[in-house]
């Protein structure tokens, strides 16, 4: 796309934003898209700060999360400078739309941006801009929105660590507007309000992506990680599973094979309920998670336990009670405990240890 075509694209986009009320609400800085920002020889340098004050929700099935975010944008444009003696002050304060109108009146422009992984409307709670006499602008907005989290990988669930991002991309190509991160104004708040996840390790990343113009545009992203509170899963999932495994092992000490079959059948139904309850929290994945593997193996072991006890009862009825007791004793000491130890050991190695 040559320069003329790009200017046409910018002008059309400005008209669309001016006509669409909802679009204007999504990015109030877009009102200054009527003129070119910077030049290839001297691109406008824009600082981006991203601070997440709250994480309102994490939807694993939809693979997105909701957040309340404070964005800080800084740049210096000499065209916006004013005479402080005439104005009577060093700093002027604007609401965003007034700043865009002021920039348009004097032939300057406010650099526009988009949130690359935004999924919902961005509702702006507060927004303001300050203009210093030398043309330095600080724009701050606090908003809430839903963001895509396509990098979720549940193979280690519930011991997984997930990656979250908030990505701000310039509408203008990198040769006209370049970004740099504002480290001191970026990060996570002290009270995020998210109980299920422990969110930490925030990092500000700078990169280049394909922007709306179809050319390379600068991007600044806040990346952070989240892992789960394991106490919940220990108490609600792993402890009941351990109890069910212990009950299955205790069945071998019953002399009546018919009673064993009845109790094992009840355990089988419990495992089915477990599987449905856990799968309800996750999307329909094309792979097994760590917990899925454990549950499916427990389900198969319980089914095998029923078949094994039916075979023992058939041996007893057919007059081979001594052989049935030997097999039963062998299962108590070796097959059942070592089988579960092998299942858990393989699951830990294959899902948690191997990258």
TrEMBL record:
The chain crosses the membrane at residues 233-254, 261-278, 290-312, 333-354. Its main location: membrane. The keyword Metal-binding does not apply. One of its GO terms (cellular component) is membrane. It is a multi-pass membrane protein. Residues 1-25 form the signal peptide. Residues 40-171 form the Neurotransmitter-gated ion-channel ligand-binding domain. Pfam families: Neur_chan_LBD (PF02931). InterPro entries: Neur_chan_lig-bd (IPR006202), Neur_chan_lig-bd_sf (IPR036734), Neur_channel (IPR006201), Neuro-gated_channel_TM_sf (IPR036719), Neuro_actylchol_rec (IPR038050). It is found in: Membrane. SUPFAM superfamilies: Neurotransmitter-gated ion-channel transmembrane pore, Nicotinic receptor ligand binding domain-like. Keywords: Membrane, Signal, Transmembrane, Transmembrane helix. GO terms for molecular function: extracellular ligand-gated monoatomic ion channel activity; transmembrane signaling receptor activity. The keyword Endoplasmic reticulum does not apply. This is Ligand-gated ion channel.
């Amino acid at each position: 796309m040559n320069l003329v075509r790009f200017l046409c694209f910018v002008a059309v986009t400005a008209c669309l934003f001016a006509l669409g009320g909802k679009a204007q609400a999504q990015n109030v800085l877009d009102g200054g898209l009527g003129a070119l920002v910077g030049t290839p020889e001297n691109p406008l340098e824009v600082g981006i700060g991203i601070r997440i004050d709250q994480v309102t929700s994490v939807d694993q099935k939809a693979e997105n999360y909701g957040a309340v975010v404070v964005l800080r944008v800084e740049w210096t444009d000499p065209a916006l400078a004013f005479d402080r003696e005439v104005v009577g002050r060093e700093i002027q304060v604007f609401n965003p739309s007034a700043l865009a109108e002021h920039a348009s009146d004097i032939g300057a422009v406010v650099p526009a941006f988009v949130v690359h992984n935004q999924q919902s409307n961005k509702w702006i709670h507060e927004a303001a801009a300050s203009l210093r006499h030398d043309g330095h602008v600080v724009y701050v907005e606090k908003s809430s929105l839903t963001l895509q989290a396509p990098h979720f990988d549940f193979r280690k669930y519930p011991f997984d660590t997930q990656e979250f991002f908030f990505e701000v991309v310039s509408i203008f190509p990198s040769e006209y507007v370049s970004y740099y991160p504002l480290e001191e104004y970026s990060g996570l708040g002290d009270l995020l309000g998210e109980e299920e996840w422990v969110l930490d390790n925030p990092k500000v990343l700078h990169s280049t992506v394909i922007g709306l113009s179809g050319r390379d545009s600068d991007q600044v992203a806040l990346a952070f990680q989240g892992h789960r509170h394991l106490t919940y899963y220990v108490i609600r999932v792993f402890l009941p599973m351990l109890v069910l495994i212990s009950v299955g092992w205790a069945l071998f000490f019953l002399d009546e094979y018919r009673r064993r079959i009845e109790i094992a059948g009840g355990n089988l139904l419990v495992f089915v309920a477990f599987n449905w309850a856990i799968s309800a929290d996750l999307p329909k994945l094309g792979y097994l998670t760590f917990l899925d593997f454990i549950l499916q193996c427990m389900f198969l072991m319980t089914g095998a336990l029923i078949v094994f006890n039916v075979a023992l009862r058939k041996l007893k009825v057919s007059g081979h009670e001594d052989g049935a007791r030997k097999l039963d004793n062998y299962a108590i000491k070796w097959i059942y405990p070592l089988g579960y130890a092998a299942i858990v050991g393989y699951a830990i190695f294959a899902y948690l240890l191997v990258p």
